[in-house]
Amino acid sequence: MKRFLLGMMIIIAVLLLVVAMRTAIHQPVMHQPAKVQPPTSQTAIPAIIPLNESLLALRLSQAIQFKTVSFQSNELKQPAEFSGFIDWVRSTYPLVNQQLEYTQLNESMLYRWVGSDESLQPILVTGHYDVVPVIPGSEDIWEHPPFAGVIDNGVIWGRGALDDKSGVLGILEAVTYLLESGHKPARTVYLSFGHDEEIGGSEGAGAIVSYLEGQGVQLAWSLDEGSFVFDGIIPGLDSLAAMINVAEKGSVTLDIIATAEGGHSSMPPRNNAVVDLAQAITKLSDNPLPGGLEGIASTMFDNISRHMSWVNRALFANQWLFGPLIESQLSNVATTNAMLRTTTAPTMLAGSVKTNVLPIEAVATVNFRIHPRDSVDSVEAYVSDLVGSDSIRVHSRGGANASAVSDWNAPGFRLIGQSMREVYGDIAVTPGLMIAASDSRHYGKVSDNAYRFNPFRLTPDLLTGFHGTNEKISVVDYAQGVRGYIGIIRHGTTN
After folding, report:
1. CB 45 within 8 A of CB 174
2. Selected catalytic residue, list 107, 163, 164, 197
3. Which of 199, 222, 427, 487 could be disulfide-bonded to 419 (CB atoms 3.0-4.6 Å)?
4. Are residues 66 and 204 in the same domain?
5. How far apart, in whole angstroms, are the C-alpha atoms of residue 44 and residue 95?
6. What are the backbone dihedrals phi and psi of residue 150, each rounded to the nearest 5 degrees, phi first?
7. Does 385 share its domain with 452?
8. Within this chain, do residues 341 and 355 fall inside the same structural domain, yes or no?
9. Mean pLDDT, all residues of the chain
10. Residues 409, 381: contact at Cβ < 8 Å?
11. Is 11 within a domain?
12. For residues 100 and 110, is the Cβ–Cβ distance under 8 A?
């Protein structure tokens, strides 16, 4: 017995030593700045970029006041608001319109800043200026009217402040600053501003991609909206983290259809269509598609955990020991669970036409956001195998697979990360997975790598603004994001 206890103590001691050693070396990686062309006296960018933050805020406020709303029904669209915004951009940013080539496709805007080295593949920096509608009846909940563009106590309020007029204007402000500073790009850069991203982007980004294909353009990389510089968003992480999304999830919607004989509700059978459907939905909820801490998610948490406390670092540095525990905990949090797997979300239900009639058909509509490891076909097959029966069938409404996964070791990713460290300090920079969709679904067709990231700080209190109420951004954070775009475009066009 003594030998057994001694042996166990030795094993435990060795385990603890291994855990401690692996934790000790699980530290933030030291990054070497990417090599850039030496700036001339005309193009040198100061370490802290001076900007007129009040003027930046005023222009974003003015942009918000254009009601460039994308409705599902085109009959509700206000074309004058879109044309007004385009005219406003062209008059408000005269240097951009004087020195860059301009092409308009439908109501989307495309600029080309020609570089001096034609051997270099061009890049593209993009955003969209259309916004989602304000939820009917929620207008009174807004602290300031959603299209007033109010600037109050250092905060810019209104629809588009985060999604995504701040991105569009941030790019325009950055290019204006670089033009005024005498920056001469070696690599050509395209700027595109879509008008219909919120309804799929087919006439905006889709048309721009067709145009670029016709011109024989293949981009080295593109940068679209996506994630942000997270502050307090990731549990256990006290520092800032720039999560640069390298892929976006796909989506498929399935109808789960239960059938039965129906009849009068006064003589209900033991099971009917509604009961069978409820059991099927419960089964789906209890058996999510398999996931795991691998690929993008593994790299993301490896990078982020290096900036966490000792305990969290110990867990992630020793996944060989704590892997199941980590995955269990991450799966219990909605935001991190979405990074690990294809998610399942029942969204709509339909049954009987009358309160006392048993339905002959009951339908649940379920939306799945597809992880890159899965596909539309594999999700449908999984669901059919799980819930399919003589009384249950699965019907697909259609969908799209996840995007290709871009290279997070490529120069474009490194330059974006370097730009964030120059603005925000030594922060965590990591690849991430976009759980929503963006115009990159189009731009990825002509980009070697498609990245999705806004260089603005995002805190938990801002999350409800996305497609919700009280969308806002602080004047300081907006200006920092403009500095981020300046760095990205400067580095991107000189490398």
Report:
1. no
2. 197
3. 487
4. yes
5. 19
6. -65, 135
7. no
8. yes
9. 93
10. no
11. no
12. no
What global pTM score does this model have? 0.92
Q: Is 101 a catalytic residue?
A: no
The answer to whether 194 and 129 are in contact (CB under 8 A) is: yes
Mean pLDDT on 455-463: 96
Residue 292 domain-assigned (yes or no)? yes
38 pLDDT band (50/70/90 cuts)?
A: very low
Find tokens 């996305």 and name the residue: 466
Same domain, 288 and 415: no
Evaluate whether 23 touches 318 at the Cβ level (below 8 Å): yes
The first and second tokens of residue 410, run together, are 């490529």
Structure tokens at 422: 């120059």
* Cα–Cα distance measured from residue 106 to residue 86, given in angstroms and rounded to the nearest whole number: 11
Residue 419: give the domain boundaries. Answer: 53-237+403-493
Supply 23's token pair: 């934790």
Kindly tell me if the per-residue pLDDT of 88 is higher than 90. Answer: yes
Q: Which residue bears the tokens 């109420």?
A: 469
Residue 490 φ then ψ, to 5°: -65, -55
> Parallel, antiparallel, or unpaired for β 428-434 and 263-264?
unpaired
φ, ψ at 382 (rounded to 5°): -60, -45
Among 345, 366, 400, the domain-final residue is 400
| pLDDT at residue 350 is higher than 70 | yes
62: DSSP letter: H
Q: What is the pLDDT of residues 424-451, one digit of tens each?
A: 998 999 999 999 899 999 999 999 999 9
pLDDT at 66 over 80: yes
> Which residues are within 8 A (CB) of 66 and not within 5 positions of it... i.e. 6 or more apart?
81, 82, 84, 85, 88, 129
Structure tokens at 235: 């549990």
Contact by Cβ (8 Å): 379, 372: no
- Domain holding 342: CATH number? 3.30.70.360
Pick the catalytic residue from 107, 130, 224, 231: 130
Q: Which two tokens stand for residue 202?
A: 């087919």
Alpha helices in 425-465 (DSSP H): 440-443
Total domains present in the chain: 2
Which of 400, 423, 451 finishes a domain? Answer: 400
